[in-house]
Amino acid sequence: MDADGEMSLNTARDLIDEAEASTKQTQEVVDRMVFTSKKQDQQFEKWNDTIASKLEELRNKITRAHHNANRIRLSMTSIGDSGGTCVRTYKPANLEPSTMTTIVLTYAISSQLRDALLFYLPSSSTDDFVAIEMVNRKMRFVWNVGGGLGEVTHPLHIQTAGDLNKDQHWYRVEAERVSNIGNLWVRPVVVPEGSSLRDSPPATNASLAGVGRFDVGPGDRVWVGGADRRHPHLLSTQSGLVGCLHHLHLNGRPIGLWDFSTQNPHSCTACVEGAQEVVDESSYSFAGDGYSVVTHDSSGTYNKYLFSVSLKFKTFDSNALLFIGSGNSTGKYVSLTLKNGRVIFRIGYGGDSSLEMSTTEKYNNGKWTRIEASRYFDRKKKLEKGVLKVGNEVRDGAPTIPPNQDSIPDMSVARYYVGGIPPGEKNLPPVPGPFLGCMSEIQIDQGAYSLLKGKYWGMQASCSSKPIGVAGFYGNGFIELPSHSLKKKDNFGFVFSTSQRDALLMLSTFEGLDRLSYYSVSLRRGQIDVRLNAGRGEVRLASVSSEYGDSRYHSINVAKIGKRLELRVDDVLDAVTNLPEGSTTFKANGESGGLFFGGLPTGFNTTGRTFSNVPFVGTIKDVIFNDRIHGFDEPLRFEEVTIGRLGPTTSQPRTNEPSNSIATGCRKITSYTVDPRAVSFGDVPFSHVQVNFRKRAVLQKNFTLELDFRTFYQNGLIFMIPGVRGKQPHYLMAALRNGRVQIVLKGRRKIETTAQAVFNDGMWHKLVLEKEDRKMTLRIDSIDPEKTKTPKKMNVGNVMYIGGLPETGVLLPQNLIHKLEGFKGCIRALRVNDREEPLVVEQTNPYPKVGQCFPQVERGSYFPGDAYAIYKNKFNVGSLLELELEFRTSEMNGVLLSVSEPQGYPALSLELNNGKVIMSGDMGDRRPFRVVQELDSEFTVCDNRWHRIQAHYINDELTLRVDDHDQSYWLSDNGHLTVATTKSPLYIGGIPEHASIGTLETRENFKGCIRNVIISGERRDWTAMASLHNVLHTSCPLPSS
C-alpha cells in the first residue's frame, strides 16, 4: 500500500469516527433539551430549528464519510503472516427477505493456508444463512433458507500467488441463489481472449424444492473472516481472514471493505489494490441513489459564450437528474433532467431570468436515447439561444428575459454533477432525485470526462446486463411482460410488500387468446388468493392466514406437478389442489405479452375470471418462473410503475423492536351485528333448513331459483330437492365440489353442469338457476353462464332442504346421503319465481341446528366465551410436544389449551392471564413449572389483532414465542421433568365445569377467534375435532368498520 492510499484510508475512518461522535454528542444535547423543554417550551422552539439543522448537517457529514470510505480500492487482509486475525462486520443497506441472493468477490492468497471464510450472512431471526468459504483451496457456496443445507463446490483449484501485484492469481468468485438453487462461478479475474474459462458453466446444486425465502432484515450483518456464532455446516477451519480480499458485492451493490461496522482491534490491514476486470469505462451504471462529481478541466481553452452537454442514457425513471453544472454564483447553472419521462433542458442566469425547453415525447422507456444540449450567446446581437436535440426531436428557444453578457453562467470553475447530488450540497436549485439506469458517451463542454476520477457513489463502470428485479406500484398503473405457459412440472413465484388487504398482484391471461386459460394471484381481505384455469374449470388455492397486508415482505410460490398444484407462502405449504379431468397446461401468449403485475389497462375485460381488480400499491420483486429470474426491464407496456425502485410501502420494523405507540387499553368490541336474512350452517351435525312449497309442481317445469351463499370450505350441499314419492332416485341438487358449484339433475338419466370458477373465498356469491322448457342455465355472479339440456318436466317434489339433510326421513338413495357433506357457511335471500322464501322464522326457531351470520367474516373459528373444542378425547403429552396457533381477542384472560388428569397432574396448559401469555405444566411429580411471555404492553394481547403463539416442550426444555418477540425459555436445572403420561381430553378455547383446572391460573373461557391450530406437526380442521361445544367454527367475525 502506498502513502497516498494509507492517508486516504486513515482520513476516511477519521471522518466517520469524528462525525459519528459529534452526532452522538449533539443527540445527547437534544435529549436533555427535550427533557428541559417541558418548562421552557418557547426557548426550546427557538433552539429546535438550530439543532435540527446541525443534526442534518452532521448526518450528511457521516454519509459523505461513508461514501469516501466506500471508494477506497485497497484490498484487505490480516496483520501478520501466521494466519488470519482480521474479522470485520458490515451493515448493508436495504437488506430484506428475498428469494434471490448474489455475491461477487475478488480474492487472492499468497500463503500456503488452505481454508478461509470469506463471506457469511446469517439471519438474526431464524437459522437462515448464506456463506462463501475456501475449503482445501476450492470455493464452496453454502446456504440454508429453511429447507435444509444447500451447498455447491467449484472444481477450480485456487493457486498461491507469488506476487499479489500480478493479476494472474486473482480470482473472481460469483455465487447466485435463485430460490433453492445455487450456482457458483470461479475464474481468474483476467482471462485471455478465447479462453474456455470466460464462459464456463457454473457448478450447480439445490436444497429442498419449494423453500427459498431468505429471512434477513435491516439489522443483520455481513461477516468477513469469522462469525459470532459459527454455523456447524461451515467447513473452513481457519479463523480470521486468510488471503487478500478485494471487491465485495451483495445483490448488485458494493460493500466497502473499509466502511465496516465492527472489527477485531489491530487485526486488519491493507494489501495491494487488487486486479481489475477490463470494463467499458465509456458507460456507467447508476443504482438510483448515487452521483458523480467532476470539476471543469482547466487545461483546455474555455469559451464563456458557448457551453454544451451530450450523453446517451437509458432508464425507466419518470423524474431524475441527468446533469447539472454550477459555478460559484448562486442561481446560475445548466441542467438536464427528466420530468414525467420528458427531457428538460434548463439554464439559470440568476434572478428571474431563465430558459427552459422540454421534449414532447417521453424517453423513460428503457432504450438508449441520445441528448445534445447547448447554449450560445451571440455577442453581436446580444442574444442568448438554447438548442435541445433528443432522438428525432429538436427544440430551440431564448430566455423570456434576455440576459446580459455578465449573467451568463461561468463554468470555468464549475462542478459538474452527473446522476445525482451528494448529501448536504448547497447553492444548487431544486432538482429531481438521483438517476437509475445507464449513461454513456458523456461529453461536457466538448470534453470527455471519466466519472470515476472524481467523487462518486452508487455507480460503477459499464452498464449492467442483470435483470431489474424490483418494481414499485402506486395504485394507478400496471406493467405487462412476456407471459409463460405452465406445463407438466413448472412453477412461479415472487415477493411482495403492501399495506392493502385487497389488490391484484399478478394475472396471466390474454384478450383474444382462450379466455378460459389463466392464472392470477390476488389479495382478498388480506388473504393470498390464487385462481387457475387450464380450460376445464377454475381451481383455487388460498393461504391459511389473512395477515399479508402488513407492509412486510412475503414470498409466494405456486408449483405445478402434473395435475397437482401447491401454494407456499413464506415457504410454508398452505394449500394443495388438483386440476379437473382433461386439464393439463395453462396456456400463455409468450413474447406477445399477457403477464400483468400490479393492475390492468383501462377497459381490460375481466369477465369470468374471479380475481381482484383493485390496483396494487406497494413493491413486487424477485419474479421467478421455472427457477429462472425474470426482470421488469423488458416490459411490453407500463404505466405509473417505478421499475427498479421500491414502491411507497416498505417493510415495517420487526414486532420485537420497540414501538412508538404502546397500547393503553384493550380494543373493545361492543357487540357483533348479524345479518337478519342469513342463516349459518355446519356448526352442528345435520344442520339444515326445510322449505315446503305450497304448489306441488313449482319446480317441475319452468322456474327461476335464486340464493346467496358464502363459505371458506371446498365442499358442501347448498340445496337438495328430492323426487316425488314413487320417484325416490330422482332429485335436483346444488353443491360445492372442490370449490365449484355443481348442479345435478337425476331423472331417467343423470345430467350435471359445473361452474367454471371457485367460490369458497368467504365472499357472498349469487346463484341463479333458471329452467325454461328443455334448457337449464346456471349463473353465478357475472361469470359466463353454464347451459345444459334437460327434460321438459322433472319429477321433483315440493320439499327443499337448504344447507344439509335431516338425520332421517329423506327419500334419497342411501349411498348418496352418505357421500354428501353439509354446507359450512351462510346462505340467504332464497327466491323462487320472484317470491322470497324466508330462511329465518320470527317465532321460536323451528330449525335449532342453524345459527346467525355475521356481516363480514374471515378464516377462523369464533369462541363466544362459553365454548370449547376437544382436540382428542385421550391425549398423551409424552416427552415431546409442539404447539402452534393464532388468536384474536379483546380480552386479557382466557384458556387457549389445557390437558390434565382428573387429580390435577400430569398437566400442561397455555393461557392468557392479565395480558401475559403463560405456558404451565406439571409432569406428574407435583413440581409445577411455567414460562411467561410479557409483551410491549399488557394490552397487546387484547388489541383484536391476530397473534401467533409457538410453544415447544422437549424433554426438560420449554420455549414460548409470541409473534416475532424474543423467545422465553424454561430449562430444568435438576432434571426433574419426565415423560408426562396423560390420557385425558385436550381442550381448546376453554374447559367444561367438570374438568380439572390442572396448571391453569384461570378458568375463564377464551372469547375471540382461533385458527391454524397445529399440534405436533398436524394441522387439524375444526370438523375433525373430537367434539365442539358452542364453537362457531365456519368463520370468524370482523368488527364493523
UniProtKB/TrEMBL annotation:
UniProt keyword Disulfide bond, yes or no:
yes
Q: Domain Laminin G: where? A: 77-271, 283-463, 468-666, 678-853, 858-1036
Cysteine disulfide partners in this protein = 244-271, 826-853, 1009-1036
Leader sequence segment = none
What InterPro entries does UniProt report for this protein, alphabetically?
ConA-like_dom_sf (IPR013320), Laminin_G (IPR001791), Neurexin-related_CASP (IPR050372)
- Supply the alphabetized keyword list: Disulfide bond
Entry-linked Pfam families: Laminin_G_2
Instruction: Name the domain of life this protein comes from.
Output: Eukaryota
The protein's name: Laminin subunit alpha-1
Starting at the broadest rank, the lineage of the source organism is: Eukaryota, Metazoa, Ecdysozoa, Arthropoda, Hexapoda
